[in-house]
Amino acid sequence: MTTSQNPQAGAPIPPRATPPAPTRPEQATHPLRIAQTLLHLALLGTAGWAVLATFFSVLATGIGLVFVLGIGLVVLVGLIYAMFGLAWFETARVGGLYDLDVTQPTFAKRTRPTFGGWIRSLGRQLKDGGMWAALANFAISATLGALVIPLVQGFIWSIGMIINPASLGTGVFRWMFLLQDVTPTQGRLLGALGIVVTAAAVFGLILLHRTLSVALIGAQAREEKLAAEAQQATHQREGAVRAADVERTRIERDLHDGVQPRLVSVGMTLGLAQQKIDSDPEGAKALLAEAHTSTKAAITELRQLARGIHASVLDDRGLDAALSALAGRSHIPVTLDVRMEGAGQAGSQSTRVARAAESAVYFVIAECLTNAAKHSRANSVRVTVRVRSTANAEGPDTQVLWARVEDDGIGGAELQPGGGLDGITNRVRAAGGTIQIDSPAGGPTAVEVSVPCAF
């Protein structure tokens, strides 16, 4: 994790929240998936309604005991926790069965560390749509399971019919077909028909279970994903606004404290030279020389100020060349290690990443080098830049521009509002990236940044 030294450098900036990956259910027609779903439904058909009946019994008991010394309230509170546990189980079950990248539910947290805060958390939990969706899915799955069990029995008996047609007059088939005397050929035909019908019905229930489960449980994951994306967009917008505000403040400060006084001094010096040009030519020449020197210094400051706003070499020649120019102007020796090949594109040095990513990383490194020179008492700085790939469940891997700046200075950098590191932090956030700052007292300081990019 990289950084430059600056009393304005900061504590580690937590990375932005990563939105949940989208659901990736396998094909429901996969034999293993069919067998797993069938087993789930059979178990739920056997035990699911027993669990639900227990819940309803506890609910009725709790309501009935509410006025008996408040014992019913304790029972009802316990029921809320049991419902949450069942919802947690159902979410984990469906997520594991269909490979849904869902976030396990968490019980509503207290907003205040008081008894009233705990009661409010219970109320919020009762209003949690995700919990009720999971409970509804459990009840539906138990119902489908109760239907699957006799269908599986019918499937097995149908196989038995083909093997032993004489069994048609006994058991379930006698009740189903109301037949007493049939030929072995008719019995086998009825057995084959039973296999087809029961297998189709079981397969239809399996597909229905998958569809409903993904719709109910997966909907929560989609809502969380959208919420995370909205939060990320808000953070990027806030970062862009904050970065622009910090940059405007810096420009105003540099103009007010640097270039403006120097230009005022140049104007006054030229005025004095004009007054002495006839009476004291030599003195006027000295004043003109002083004004000339001050003018060149003002031009240099303006050039540096403009470079801090926009680095033209970055647009013209790319990040590698721009960083080489930065290192050449640094008062501290800088070791550059820049490799801009794209993933799977080794050797393609000319490849350019997104300009926004290049700009964000460039200004991070520029600020770090400036801070190292001014505040860190460092003897050397190392800059490492890479293009990396990160796994992305939504599709192809994501390319990120990663950079690390580390110096051997005294550390102790702190992020302060309006400071240099505050500016680069917001610039990185605006580009959708993350920044990590590590600067313990005594050093060293390191700043690490990752910004999404594209070729």
Automatic annotation (TrEMBL):
The chain crosses the membrane at residues 38-59, 65-89, 130-149, 155-177, 189-208. One of its GO terms (molecular function) is protein dimerization activity. Residues 1-27 are annotated as: Disordered. It holds the Pfam family HisKA_3. Residues 12-23 have a biased composition (Pro residues). Keywords: ATP-binding, Kinase, Membrane, Nucleotide-binding, Phosphoprotein, Transferase, Transmembrane, Transmembrane helix, Two-component regulatory system. The keyword Cell membrane does not apply. GO terms for cellular component: membrane. InterPro entries: HATPase_C_sf, HATPase_dom, Put_sensor_dom, Sensor_HK_TwoCompSys, Sig_transdc_His_kin_sub3_dim/P. This is histidine kinase. Gene3D superfamilies: 1.20.5.1930, Histidine kinase-like ATPase, C-terminal domain (3.30.565.10). It is an enzyme of class 2 (transferase). Residues 356-455 form the Histidine kinase/HSP90-like ATPase domain. It comes from the Bacteria. PANTHER family: NITRATE/NITRITE SENSOR PROTEIN NARX-RELATED, NITRATE_NITRITE SENSOR PROTEIN NARQ. It catalyses: ATP + protein L-histidine = ADP + protein N-phospho-L-histidine. The keyword Transmembrane helix applies. It comes from Leucobacter denitrificans. Its EC number is 2.7.13.3.
